Amino acid sequence: MPTSVPVTTSEIREQFLQFFAARGHEIVASSSLVPGNDKTLLFTNAGMVQFKEVFTGEEVREYKRAVTSQRCVRAGGKHNDLDNVGYTARHHTFFEMLGNFSFGDYFKHDAIGFAWTFLTETLGLPAEKLWVTVFEEDDEAESIWVDVIGVPADRVIRIGAKDNFWMMGDTGPCGPCSEIFYDHGEEVWGGPPGSAEEDGDRYIEIWNLVFMQYDRSSDGTLTPLPRPCVDTGMGLERIAAVLQHVHSNYEIDLFARLIRDTADLLGVTDLTVPSLRVITDHLRSCSFLIVDGVLPGNEGRGYVLRRIIRRAARHGHKLGASGPFFHKLVKSLAREMGLAYPELVDRQSEVERQLLKEEERFAATLSSGLAILDDEISRLQGRMIPGEVIFRLYDTYGFPADLTADIARERKLDVDMPGFETCMEVQRARARAASNFASQGLDFHTTTQSEFLGYDCDKCEAIIVELITDGESVARLEPGQAGWVVLDRTPFYGESGGQVGDIGTISVTGDGGEPTALFEVLDTQKQRQAIAHAGSLSGASLSVGESVTARIDDRRRDRIRQNHSATHLLHAALRTVLGSHVEQKGSLVNDEYLRFDFSHGDSITEAQQNNIEQWMDREIRANNPCQTQEMSMDDAIAAGAMALFGEKYGEVVRVVRLGDRSVELCGGTHVRATGDLGGVKIRSEGGVAAGIRRIEAVSGLAALRYSQTLEHQLNVVASTLKAPKTDVVTKLKQLQSRNRELARQVEQLQARLAASFGSDLAASAVRIGPASVLLQVVDDADAKALRTLMDQLRQKLDNSVIVLASEKDGKVALIATVAQALHATLKAGDLLKTVAGVMGGRGGGRADMAQGGADSLERIDEAFTSARDLIESRLGT
């Protein structure tokens, strides 16, 4: 093996990138773990995800060759390795995928040659240790391996489509694969791929070469692509294990140091326990998910992150951790991976903060949840934990199902996951039934490209290139029809980046200057490279190829411009006042107001809100110009531009700068200068999810009107209080104090009346066995008044059994008490349930005291009769 062979994980990663860079490949940075271009994926799970639209031809890059080291997560959804992590040698929630790609440039010959050269020359792997598979019908690939590379024919194995034919989906680009395997030697059990022993660990796949050469139609027909592509993937952890002569990925240098740090932190001496592998694997996925903007939550990606954090915390608890520990390991991860991924170092403190917060949240429920699970396990009739139990632990105690499954595995028990999924589906069905939300989206697909002119103009002449109605492309749209119009150029902004689409008109003008055909645009959406205008047609028909005038509602656009620029200022103000951990998590920008979701753990104080508004006001008064510039993504990030969570960006991006403090990547429309905003007022702030806050604000004339509304309300309050506006707070506090004093006096008076009334009622009690029994309706008393009266009666009656009922403000309150000496035979909870049950109400409580309610007193006599029967049966006559 050559002396220059890379050995460490970092060296392998760097050598891979440089090997392909030297062969004309563009080194492309790892994309976010949150796919910006594929809503079907929870997480980026392969190197090709960021290039998906390049492979389909929807996007064109400046380069035809690329190489990446892509951060990937497989946890949740179809690609879910979570249950196996920690218990096998090669399963991970987080891994790095090394990949080289060709977009219509080189194909099989070069792809195979590059792979072989890198493995045998750069990495120095013995050629005799490498085996190859090809698709069973791919004669070309087999010929290259055998005749050009020189791999012996008996080490090139033909495999069927299940394992060696890759498809992006049911339709679209697809093609055969060729996989490279490493032979660990005969001392490890297992056979070559395709054999009966292929599931053994002797032959391990290290690289997969995908040759996208066909387009698959809906009927299954394969048509050769005009520009075949190459997509390859090699797991960094796997190849590192091969080069470092270890069998498990968890024994490579990176994991070995992380496991040692974890063991030292927890005081563990046995470095082989699975829990250490679980914690170190989960440390990587959790940290990088938070780096990429995902926060623990109860839905989607946030819920998967929460599951992983809690699984790690539970394994730490199992190893003896007495408090939060997981967050303390982030510095070790930053040491190991910060050079390759500097964003981890930049956001280390935020990652630690989020992990600590989730650990503390989970600690509050872990002990109670474990107690419930232990109790359920102790009462099991067999070896299966029911799905209802798994669901209750998840729904009530925040126990992820896989955490329950983890514990069950350790105790040699099975889990009823189908039953759990049934319970989950019932809950989802309830949520769907309770929701009035209906998603509105495009019901068609188009490959048309539209030129957007709306940065510089409000109207333009254009040509109709496509008409769609009822989801179908048509040549003509008739008056009265609704549909979509796609133009070759348009001033209309298609909804994206939180900014709503424009409205306006698309018209054809007759000889007299009046519109003969008028298409009223009610919404504008983006569909890939096209801008589609939704609306309805009046007047005359519209045809494909016809010249039209497109005109937006410019007054509405002006208000949208103000709110969009105000959103940028608000984002900068939040980061200035609250801290750099603030990141945008969502936004809505329309002509009425702006809504901004951002990461922050606590509610915003009044002082902080004032500081935020004052900061924005200073920027507005400075009248800083709005500057826009197009540049490469790398240059934009270097210039300090913020890329926003969940957005997909191309190679060339638009940078919007408002003064020196607000620099963002943005394709939206903005004011000419900050002074055009007039002002910004925050009208509400609150939480929308764990660690996510939401602000709604208004700008321009709407901000003025909002301030005027508040001023008017203050005037009304001052007038009502008969006090100057400057004194209303003092006056209100005086009134509150006076009201508290009056309430105290009323309570004292009610107590005296209750004492007097109680003496009269006590005389009405009857003797049943050893008990003094009183069943009584009290006029116009609420639950609190009944409790006060009940206390008076208990003091006056020996061995009391009392039920009181009263109706006030349309609600019936019920209360019952039973003296302690009688609890062996009669309990207040049973007595109250009897009364409430007859009345169609509900209630319950302890042996000595119970409360409930009903809708009316209509059946109170019948209820008291049932109560008397119960008392007599329990206490005797």
Structural summary, described in words:
The protein has 877 residues and is an alpha+beta fold. It has 6 domains: 9-247, BirA Bifunctional Protein, domain 2 (2-Layer Sandwich), CATH 3.30.930.10; 252-379; 380-434, no CATH class; 451-544, Elongation Factor Tu (Ef-tu), domain 3; 557-710, Threonyl-trna Synthetase, Chain A, domain 2 (Threonyl-tRNA Synthetase, Chain A, domain 2); 755-875, Diaminopimelate Epimerase, Chain A, domain 1, CATH 3.10.310. Helix content is 38%, strand content 26%. The chain has 23 helices and 35 strands. Strands 1, 2, 3, 4, 5, 6, 7, 8 and 9 form a 9-stranded mixed sheet that branches. The protein has a 6-stranded antiparallel beta barrel with strand order 13-16-20-19-18-22. Strands 30-31-32-33-35-34 form a 6-stranded mixed sheet, sandwiched between helices. Helix 9 (300-318) packs across helix 12, helix 16 (554-577) packs across helix 17 (606-622) and helix 20 runs parallel beside helix 21 (783-796). It starts with 8 loop residues before the first helix and ends with a helix.
